[in-house]
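Entry for the shared binder. Reason: the reviewer on the internal report wants the predicted structure included alongside the sequence.
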Amino acid sequence: MTVQLLSATEALARLADFSIVIDARSEGEYAEDHLPNAHNWPSLRDEERKVVGTQYKQINAFEAKKQGAALVAKNIAAHIEREVLDKPKEWQPLVYCWRGGKRSGSLALILDQIGFKVTLIEGGYKAFRAALVADLPQLAARYRYQVVCGTTGSGKTRFLQALAAQGAQVLDLEALANHRSSVLGLIPGQAQPSQKAFDTRIWTALRGFDATRPVYIESESKKVGNVVIPDSLMAAMRRSPCLRLDLPEAERVSLLLEDYDFFVRDIELFCERLGALTEARGKDIVAHWQTQARSGDVASVVRELLVKHYDPVYLQSMRRNFEQYETARVLTPRDHTVAAMTELAQTLLAS
Protein backbone atom coordinates (compact mmCIF):
# COMPACT_ATOMS: atom_id res chain seq x y z
CA MET A 1 0.00 0.00 0.00
CA THR A 2 1.00 3.63 -0.44
CA VAL A 3 0.16 6.65 1.71
CA GLN A 4 -1.96 9.05 -0.35
CA LEU A 5 -1.21 12.78 -0.49
CA LEU A 6 -4.04 15.29 -0.53
CA SER A 7 -3.71 19.04 -1.06
CA ALA A 8 -4.97 21.27 1.74
CA THR A 9 -7.73 22.62 -0.53
CA GLU A 10 -8.94 19.10 -1.28
CA ALA A 11 -8.74 18.24 2.42
CA LEU A 12 -10.99 21.20 3.28
CA ALA A 13 -13.62 19.88 0.91
CA ARG A 14 -13.35 16.24 1.92
CA LEU A 15 -13.03 16.27 5.72
CA ALA A 16 -16.25 14.31 6.13
CA ASP A 17 -14.91 11.46 3.98
CA PHE A 18 -12.44 10.26 6.60
CA SER A 19 -13.00 8.06 9.63
CA ILE A 20 -10.81 10.33 11.76
CA VAL A 21 -8.59 13.39 11.39
CA ILE A 22 -5.33 12.97 13.33
CA ASP A 23 -3.12 15.89 14.36
CA ALA A 24 0.38 14.52 14.97
CA ARG A 25 1.76 17.80 16.37
CA SER A 26 2.44 18.49 20.05
CA GLU A 27 -0.38 19.27 22.45
CA GLY A 28 0.62 22.94 22.53
CA GLU A 29 0.46 23.30 18.75
CA TYR A 30 -2.88 21.48 18.74
CA ALA A 31 -4.29 23.77 21.44
CA GLU A 32 -3.48 26.88 19.41
CA ASP A 33 -5.52 25.60 16.47
CA HIS A 34 -6.30 22.42 14.58
CA LEU A 35 -8.48 21.06 11.82
CA PRO A 36 -12.18 20.68 12.76
CA ASN A 37 -12.82 17.62 14.93
CA ALA A 38 -9.15 16.59 14.77
CA HIS A 39 -7.83 14.22 17.45
CA ASN A 40 -4.40 14.94 18.92
CA TRP A 41 -1.90 12.05 18.68
CA PRO A 42 1.42 13.81 19.36
CA SER A 43 4.44 12.21 17.72
CA LEU A 44 6.48 14.43 20.03
CA ARG A 45 5.03 16.14 23.08
CA ASP A 46 5.88 19.71 24.04
CA GLU A 47 8.59 18.76 26.54
CA GLU A 48 10.02 16.14 24.21
CA ARG A 49 10.32 18.68 21.41
CA LYS A 50 12.30 20.91 23.78
CA VAL A 51 14.65 18.06 24.66
CA VAL A 52 15.28 17.17 21.02
CA GLY A 53 15.68 20.83 20.08
CA THR A 54 18.25 21.33 22.86
CA GLN A 55 20.23 18.32 21.66
CA TYR A 56 20.11 19.64 18.11
CA LYS A 57 21.62 22.96 19.21
CA GLN A 58 24.03 21.81 21.91
CA ILE A 59 25.24 18.47 20.52
CA ASN A 60 24.47 17.79 16.86
CA ALA A 61 21.65 16.94 14.45
CA PHE A 62 22.52 13.22 14.30
CA GLU A 63 22.23 12.70 18.06
CA ALA A 64 19.02 14.77 18.15
CA LYS A 65 17.47 12.68 15.36
CA LYS A 66 18.26 9.44 17.20
CA GLN A 67 16.65 10.73 20.38
CA GLY A 68 13.68 12.06 18.43
CA ALA A 69 13.19 8.76 16.61
CA ALA A 70 13.10 6.86 19.89
CA LEU A 71 10.52 9.20 21.35
CA VAL A 72 8.36 9.20 18.20
CA ALA A 73 8.41 5.40 18.04
CA LYS A 74 7.37 5.12 21.68
CA ASN A 75 4.55 7.63 21.27
CA ILE A 76 3.20 6.08 18.08
CA ALA A 77 3.21 2.65 19.73
CA ALA A 78 1.13 4.05 22.59
CA HIS A 79 -1.32 5.67 20.18
CA ILE A 80 -1.77 2.40 18.28
CA GLU A 81 -2.30 0.38 21.45
CA ARG A 82 -4.79 2.92 22.75
CA GLU A 83 -6.72 3.84 19.61
CA VAL A 84 -6.10 1.44 16.71
CA LEU A 85 -6.32 -2.16 17.89
CA ASP A 86 -10.12 -2.23 17.61
CA LYS A 87 -10.33 -0.51 14.21
CA PRO A 88 -11.54 -2.45 11.13
CA LYS A 89 -9.55 -2.52 7.90
CA GLU A 90 -11.99 0.00 6.35
CA TRP A 91 -10.93 2.67 8.87
CA GLN A 92 -9.48 5.61 6.90
CA PRO A 93 -7.44 8.23 8.79
CA LEU A 94 -6.39 11.66 7.52
CA VAL A 95 -3.09 12.63 9.15
CA TYR A 96 -1.18 15.91 9.34
CA CYS A 97 1.51 17.73 11.30
CA TRP A 98 3.01 21.22 10.91
CA ARG A 99 4.23 20.91 7.31
CA GLY A 100 3.28 17.32 6.47
CA GLY A 101 6.77 16.04 7.16
CA LYS A 102 8.42 13.62 9.54
CA ARG A 103 6.00 13.61 12.46
CA SER A 104 2.87 12.84 10.44
CA GLY A 105 4.87 10.81 7.92
CA SER A 106 6.13 8.42 10.58
CA LEU A 107 2.64 7.79 11.92
CA ALA A 108 1.18 7.47 8.42
CA LEU A 109 3.85 4.99 7.38
CA ILE A 110 3.12 2.65 10.28
CA LEU A 111 -0.65 2.87 9.81
CA ASP A 112 -0.15 2.19 6.12
CA GLN A 113 2.03 -0.85 6.86
CA ILE A 114 -0.71 -2.22 9.10
CA GLY A 115 -3.02 -2.12 6.09
CA PHE A 116 -5.15 1.01 6.54
CA LYS A 117 -5.87 3.46 3.72
CA VAL A 118 -3.99 6.50 5.01
CA THR A 119 -4.07 10.04 3.61
CA LEU A 120 -1.61 12.84 4.42
CA ILE A 121 -2.30 16.55 3.99
CA GLU A 122 0.42 17.88 1.72
CA GLY A 123 2.01 20.84 3.48
CA GLY A 124 0.34 19.96 6.79
CA TYR A 125 -1.40 22.44 9.09
CA LYS A 126 0.48 25.36 7.54
CA ALA A 127 -1.07 24.63 4.14
CA PHE A 128 -4.48 24.04 5.71
CA ARG A 129 -4.32 27.42 7.42
CA ALA A 130 -3.44 29.17 4.15
CA ALA A 131 -6.28 27.39 2.34
CA LEU A 132 -8.76 28.32 5.08
CA VAL A 133 -7.76 31.98 5.00
CA ALA A 134 -8.19 31.97 1.21
CA ASP A 135 -11.58 30.25 1.47
CA LEU A 136 -13.11 32.45 4.18
CA PRO A 137 -13.95 35.50 1.99
CA GLN A 138 -15.96 33.53 -0.57
CA LEU A 139 -17.58 31.48 2.17
CA ALA A 140 -18.60 34.60 4.13
CA ALA A 141 -20.06 36.18 0.98
CA ARG A 142 -22.21 33.12 0.20
CA TYR A 143 -24.94 33.81 2.77
CA ARG A 144 -27.76 36.27 3.44
CA TYR A 145 -27.36 37.68 6.94
CA GLN A 146 -29.94 39.12 9.30
CA VAL A 147 -28.06 41.26 11.82
CA VAL A 148 -29.60 41.30 15.29
CA CYS A 149 -29.06 44.77 16.76
CA GLY A 150 -29.99 46.35 20.05
CA THR A 151 -28.37 48.27 22.86
CA THR A 152 -26.53 46.42 25.62
CA GLY A 153 -28.89 44.23 27.66
CA SER A 154 -31.63 44.13 25.02
CA GLY A 155 -31.34 40.34 24.78
CA LYS A 156 -29.46 39.80 21.53
CA THR A 157 -27.69 36.65 22.74
CA ARG A 158 -30.85 35.19 24.26
CA PHE A 159 -32.72 35.92 21.05
CA LEU A 160 -30.05 34.24 18.92
CA GLN A 161 -30.15 31.21 21.20
CA ALA A 162 -33.94 31.12 20.87
CA LEU A 163 -33.67 31.32 17.08
CA ALA A 164 -31.16 28.46 17.04
CA ALA A 165 -33.44 26.37 19.26
CA GLN A 166 -36.23 26.88 16.72
CA GLY A 167 -34.01 25.57 13.92
CA ALA A 168 -32.76 28.85 12.46
CA GLN A 169 -29.18 29.20 11.22
CA VAL A 170 -27.26 31.22 13.81
CA LEU A 171 -23.63 32.31 13.83
CA ASP A 172 -22.98 33.16 17.48
CA LEU A 173 -19.63 34.94 17.36
CA GLU A 174 -19.54 35.58 21.10
CA ALA A 175 -19.99 31.88 21.83
CA LEU A 176 -17.23 31.04 19.34
CA ALA A 177 -14.97 33.64 20.98
CA ASN A 178 -15.80 32.75 24.61
CA HIS A 179 -16.42 36.44 25.25
CA ARG A 180 -19.42 38.77 25.62
CA SER A 181 -17.88 41.51 23.52
CA SER A 182 -17.41 44.43 25.89
CA VAL A 183 -14.86 45.61 28.40
CA LEU A 184 -16.81 43.56 30.95
CA GLY A 185 -17.29 40.65 28.57
CA LEU A 186 -14.51 38.29 29.67
CA ILE A 187 -16.15 35.19 31.15
CA PRO A 188 -14.37 33.95 34.30
CA GLY A 189 -12.80 30.55 33.84
CA GLN A 190 -13.18 30.55 30.05
CA ALA A 191 -10.07 31.34 28.03
CA GLN A 192 -10.53 32.83 24.60
CA PRO A 193 -9.36 30.84 21.59
CA SER A 194 -6.35 31.96 19.59
CA GLN A 195 -7.05 34.09 16.52
CA LYS A 196 -6.33 31.07 14.31
CA ALA A 197 -8.74 28.88 16.28
CA PHE A 198 -11.42 31.60 16.15
CA ASP A 199 -11.06 31.77 12.37
CA THR A 200 -11.35 27.99 12.15
CA ARG A 201 -14.47 27.98 14.33
CA ILE A 202 -16.11 30.59 12.09
CA TRP A 203 -15.11 28.72 8.93
CA THR A 204 -16.44 25.44 10.34
CA ALA A 205 -19.78 27.01 11.30
CA LEU A 206 -20.22 28.77 7.96
CA ARG A 207 -19.54 25.69 5.86
CA GLY A 208 -22.33 23.88 7.70
CA PHE A 209 -25.01 26.39 6.66
CA ASP A 210 -27.54 26.26 3.82
CA ALA A 211 -27.10 29.22 1.44
CA THR A 212 -30.82 29.27 0.61
CA ARG A 213 -31.71 30.20 4.20
CA PRO A 214 -30.78 33.35 6.17
CA VAL A 215 -28.04 33.36 8.81
CA TYR A 216 -28.76 35.32 11.99
CA ILE A 217 -25.80 37.08 13.56
CA GLU A 218 -25.24 39.73 16.22
CA SER A 219 -24.11 43.27 15.40
CA GLU A 220 -20.60 42.88 16.76
CA SER A 221 -17.78 45.38 16.59
CA LYS A 222 -14.57 44.38 14.86
CA LYS A 223 -13.11 42.74 17.97
CA VAL A 224 -14.74 40.24 20.30
CA GLY A 225 -12.46 40.46 23.29
CA ASN A 226 -8.96 39.73 22.00
CA VAL A 227 -9.94 38.11 18.70
CA VAL A 228 -10.83 39.85 15.44
CA ILE A 229 -13.74 39.04 13.14
CA PRO A 230 -12.45 38.31 9.61
CA ASP A 231 -12.71 41.35 7.33
CA SER A 232 -14.85 39.55 4.77
CA LEU A 233 -17.45 38.54 7.34
CA MET A 234 -17.43 41.98 8.93
CA ALA A 235 -18.06 43.61 5.54
CA ALA A 236 -20.95 41.24 4.81
CA MET A 237 -22.51 41.95 8.20
CA ARG A 238 -22.26 45.71 7.82
CA ARG A 239 -24.17 45.80 4.54
CA SER A 240 -26.90 43.37 5.64
CA PRO A 241 -30.49 44.05 6.83
CA CYS A 242 -30.90 44.60 10.57
CA LEU A 243 -33.38 43.49 13.21
CA ARG A 244 -33.51 45.80 16.24
CA LEU A 245 -34.45 44.49 19.66
CA ASP A 246 -36.08 47.08 21.93
CA LEU A 247 -36.38 46.50 25.68
CA PRO A 248 -37.19 49.02 28.43
CA GLU A 249 -34.27 50.11 30.59
CA ALA A 250 -35.48 48.25 33.70
CA GLU A 251 -35.74 44.99 31.73
CA ARG A 252 -32.25 45.47 30.35
CA VAL A 253 -30.83 45.95 33.84
CA SER A 254 -32.56 42.79 35.03
CA LEU A 255 -31.23 40.81 32.08
CA LEU A 256 -27.66 41.96 32.67
CA LEU A 257 -27.82 41.16 36.39
CA GLU A 258 -28.85 37.62 35.41
CA ASP A 259 -26.37 37.11 32.58
CA TYR A 260 -23.46 38.65 34.50
CA ASP A 261 -24.36 37.11 37.84
CA PHE A 262 -20.70 36.24 38.44
CA PHE A 263 -20.07 39.96 38.97
CA VAL A 264 -22.84 40.10 41.58
CA ARG A 265 -21.24 37.13 43.36
CA ASP A 266 -17.73 38.60 43.14
CA ILE A 267 -17.89 42.35 43.62
CA GLU A 268 -14.11 42.78 43.61
CA LEU A 269 -13.93 41.14 40.19
CA PHE A 270 -16.61 43.57 39.02
CA CYS A 271 -14.70 46.54 40.43
CA GLU A 272 -11.50 45.33 38.82
CA ARG A 273 -13.20 45.16 35.42
CA LEU A 274 -14.77 48.60 35.95
CA GLY A 275 -11.23 49.93 36.29
CA ALA A 276 -10.74 49.25 32.58
CA LEU A 277 -13.20 52.09 31.90
CA THR A 278 -11.06 54.71 33.64
CA GLU A 279 -9.58 56.09 30.44
CA ALA A 280 -12.98 56.36 28.75
CA ARG A 281 -15.11 57.61 31.68
CA GLY A 282 -12.62 59.19 34.05
CA LYS A 283 -11.21 58.21 37.43
CA ASP A 284 -13.90 59.91 39.53
CA ILE A 285 -16.87 58.31 37.77
CA VAL A 286 -15.31 54.85 37.87
CA ALA A 287 -14.43 55.26 41.57
CA HIS A 288 -18.07 56.24 42.22
CA TRP A 289 -19.30 53.11 40.44
CA GLN A 290 -16.90 50.95 42.42
CA THR A 291 -18.13 52.46 45.70
CA GLN A 292 -21.75 51.84 44.69
CA ALA A 293 -20.98 48.24 43.78
CA ARG A 294 -19.20 47.58 47.06
CA SER A 295 -22.19 49.01 48.93
CA GLY A 296 -24.41 46.40 47.26
CA ASP A 297 -26.11 48.66 44.72
CA VAL A 298 -24.96 46.84 41.60
CA ALA A 299 -28.23 47.57 39.79
CA SER A 300 -27.61 51.34 39.90
CA VAL A 301 -24.10 50.83 38.53
CA VAL A 302 -25.44 48.74 35.67
CA ARG A 303 -28.10 51.36 34.89
CA GLU A 304 -25.50 54.14 34.78
CA LEU A 305 -23.19 52.02 32.64
CA LEU A 306 -25.99 51.62 30.13
CA VAL A 307 -27.06 55.26 30.01
CA LYS A 308 -23.69 56.98 30.29
CA HIS A 309 -21.34 54.53 28.57
CA TYR A 310 -22.72 51.66 26.51
CA ASP A 311 -25.76 53.23 24.84
CA PRO A 312 -24.05 56.33 23.38
CA VAL A 313 -21.06 54.32 22.15
CA TYR A 314 -23.23 51.56 20.68
CA LEU A 315 -25.64 53.85 18.83
CA GLN A 316 -22.82 55.93 17.39
CA SER A 317 -21.04 52.80 16.19
CA MET A 318 -24.18 51.27 14.66
CA ARG A 319 -25.10 54.40 12.72
CA ARG A 320 -21.56 54.72 11.43
CA ASN A 321 -20.89 51.10 10.49
CA PHE A 322 -24.14 49.28 9.67
CA GLU A 323 -25.66 50.56 6.44
CA GLN A 324 -29.23 49.39 7.09
CA TYR A 325 -29.46 50.14 10.81
CA GLU A 326 -31.80 53.12 10.41
CA THR A 327 -34.32 50.98 8.50
CA ALA A 328 -34.11 48.02 10.87
CA ARG A 329 -37.24 46.04 11.63
CA VAL A 330 -38.08 46.68 15.29
CA LEU A 331 -38.76 43.65 17.48
CA THR A 332 -40.24 44.14 20.95
CA PRO A 333 -40.15 41.16 23.33
CA ARG A 334 -42.70 41.30 26.13
CA ASP A 335 -39.87 41.15 28.67
CA HIS A 336 -36.27 39.95 29.05
CA THR A 337 -36.99 36.30 29.86
CA VAL A 338 -35.97 33.27 27.83
CA ALA A 339 -39.67 32.45 27.33
CA ALA A 340 -40.29 35.88 25.84
CA MET A 341 -37.33 35.52 23.47
CA THR A 342 -38.61 32.11 22.41
CA GLU A 343 -42.04 33.56 21.61
CA LEU A 344 -40.41 36.37 19.62
CA ALA A 345 -38.23 33.91 17.68
CA GLN A 346 -41.26 31.77 16.82
CA THR A 347 -43.20 34.84 15.62
CA LEU A 348 -40.30 36.07 13.49
CA LEU A 349 -39.66 32.72 11.84
CA ALA A 350 -43.35 32.23 11.12
CA SER A 351 -43.69 35.64 9.42
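Summary line for the report: The longest strand covers residues 145-149.
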